[in-house]
Amino acid sequence: MTGRLALGLAAVLLLAFLLSPDSFAPLLRPLTRNGAPPVYTQTSLLSLTLSHLGMVAGAVLAASVLAVGFGVLVTRPSGRDFLPLARTVASVGQTFPPVAVLALAVPVMGFGTGPTMLALFLYGLLPIFENTLAGLAGLPPQVIEAARGMGMTPAQRLWRVELPLALPVILSGVRLSAVIALSTATIGSTVAARTLGEVIIAGLLSSNTAFVVQGGVVVGILALLIHAGLRALEDRAAAWSHAGRS
Amino acid sequence: MNPAAAGTRPGISRPALLFAAVGLTGLALPFVQFRANRIVGGEGLSLPDALGPWGWAAAALVVAVLLALSRVPPRAALVAATCGLLAVTLSAGAAAGALVPEGDRIARVSLGAGFWLLLAAFALALADALSRLALRPAWRWALLAGTVAAIALILGTGLLDDLSVMREYAARRDMFWREAQRHLALAFGSLGAALAVGLPLGIVIHEAPRLRGAVLGVLNVVQTIPSLALFGIMIPLFGWIAASVPGAAAAGIAGIGAFPALVALFLYSLLPVVSNMLAGLAGVPPGVREAAAGLGMTRAQALAQVMIPLTLPVLLAAVRIVLVQNIGLAVIAGLIGGGGFGSFVFQGLNQTAMDLVLLGALPTIALALVSGIALDLALDGLDPRKGHA
Question: What is the annotated localization of this protein (chain A) (predicted)?
Fold first, then answer.
């Protein structure tokens, strides 16, 4: 309960800071030296935050749709041939460092927001795909058998039984993917994507601690909020699929 | 090839058709990029463009192997995929050698999209064959060692030296190995520190359940903070500590260099270590603990002699997570002056010198892959013992 209260407070503070950064200037001034500006003003923090979140949301949504689609395909009888390969690719792919994936995306796709989003999307596929596989393949055979016994068609079984039951596991893959994407997008500003990493890097380059702290704290709070929000969604899905099961 | 074994797999393997599609697309795309110097735009060359008749031969071989993959049993597919990987890599080296005039230090030949797609096609085929074969651990260890040795051998013989990445390497050989050492020191140093602190912490919160929520909560929050933010905040923090706490600077604490990066990596490593230690201890069946008590062991003895050894597989899993994660995250140290392969990555991004980016990214990926696979194998090796427990 205290955790939820702290998160709510953090969300309110974050919103206040993004809407009126200048009123926090006295707080940040002690972190600056030689009269450096305490608040990042090159670009509005609000627009950087929105662009950052938009990239993450777009990449993760697209990755979810495709990864769940692939996961369903390789667990159908017609796609079984691909299952062992799919498992290997999902687990080996995740040992690729996200930063390296981002760096490698540049020679292929160039600098900017688009390539970064594509890299986030590609990397985001793996955790969701792996969890979709785990969720669908881990269902008790009796459940599928029972659904078949009730005369459900394969499509009905998928939509009404398998996917709802696997939903909590799939959602935890989405959460992992979103947290990684949020972090990797921050580094995206080194390849000229418009994200909050810009603030941190500006701070590092000009030794302005206030910039580093405000960028870091904003991304950190966003990460916590997204993590908690998706976690709550997961719990709700778990309760729901549990209720459906009994 | 064994016809009897082939007969047990009627028809063609559909994954192999996918590999063939990827590989054939790769053949159609530029295999290497030729540039008169490091800065000008490149000209894409296909395998035959770059190597003449030898290129046609190599392309024909590649097509043959790709098509054969769909009809052969896994063991033969493994051999074929390995040959394919070797052929593609060596062709790239040969193409660079043929394109760069003798003695020219300025012309650059970098790897093109075609090369990477072909490499991906054969790597996928290899992965597919391996997952179908389900080899015994000893064989898989041998394969891993053989792969590492083969890569070292190919690099050592200088067959690839005319490629642009290797040119970048040759220009900064000493620096490369220094940064490699730094990268390993960051990844393993933070792992060691996390084990030294995290294991006792895990035991403490197992014995004192009241502390569990708070400790795991804090570590969870740390884990969620994006890496650049955490690395960034460490710099002013430790700069301030070094400047204002007497003796801190003398003890090696500094706001610049590797120290902030090491601490950031250490903080990220704590959650997997602590939570796996806790899960391992909680997973020990109650009967084991009672048996130990029945033998007259004290609580501390039971922990040290019976329970902690039983948590070994779970701890090894934590080591795998942390090591792979830290090898990747240590790249970010390059952005804050902490050294490691990340120095090359970010330098390369700044100069838009993509071969320099590769010089940093490829060893990082290789390191993460090898440690991930090796620790997976070690975990598999422990599995039977876990089954006995």
Answer: Cell membrane
Task: Pull the structure tokens for residue B293.
Answer: 């008590």
Domains of chain A and CATH, by start: 42-245 (1.10.3720.10)
Task: Name the H helices within B29-172.
Answer: 47-51, 53-68, 74-99, 113-133, 137-157, 164-171
The whole-model pTM stands at: 0.87
Q: If you search the block for the tokens 């392309």, which residue do you land on? A: B59
CA–CA distance, A163 with A144 (Å, rounded to integer): 11
Q: End-to-end CA distance of chain B, in Å?
A: 42
What's the burial of B161, exposed, middle or buried (CB within 10 Å: 0-12/13-18/19+)?
middle
| B17 chain-A contacts, CB cut-off 8 A | none
Distance of CA A220 to the CA centre of its chain: 13
With a pLDDT cut of 90, the percent of chain B lying above it is: 33
Tokens of residue B179, six digits:
């940064």
A99 contacts in chain B (CB < 8 Å): 328-329, 331-332, 342, 345, 364
| CA nearest to B120, candidates B14, B13, B12, B21 | B21
In Å, how far are B196, B209, B270 from B203, measured between CA atoms? 12, 10, 13
Of B18, B232, B368, the CB nearest to A204: B232
Residues of chain B with CATH 1.10.3720.10: 173-388
| ipTM field | 0.83
| CATH class of residue range B173-388 | mainly alpha
Which string of DSSP letters, residue by residue, matches chain A?
A: -HHHHHHHHHHHHHHHHHH-GGGGHHHHGGG--TT--SS--SS-HHHHHHHHHHHHHHHHHHHHHHHHHHHHHHHSGGGGGGHHHHHHHHHHHTTS-HHHHHHHHHHHH-SSHHHHHHHHHHHHHHHHHHHHHHHHHTS-HHHHHHHHHTT--HHHIIIIIIHHHHHHHHHHHHHHHHHHHHHHHHHHGGGT--STHHHHHHHHHTT-HHHHHHHHHHHHHHHHHHHHHHHHHHHHHHHHHHHHH-
Token code pair at residue B200: 């006792």
Task: Calculate the average pLDDT of chain A.
Answer: 87
Of A92, A107, A200, the CB nearest to B357: A107
User: What pLDDT digit, counting tens, does each position of B134-151 carry?
Assistant: 888 888 899 999 999 999
The distance of B334 to chain A (nearest Cα, Å) reads 11
What distances in angstroms separate CA B96 from CA A194, B45, B46, one per listed residue?
37, 11, 12
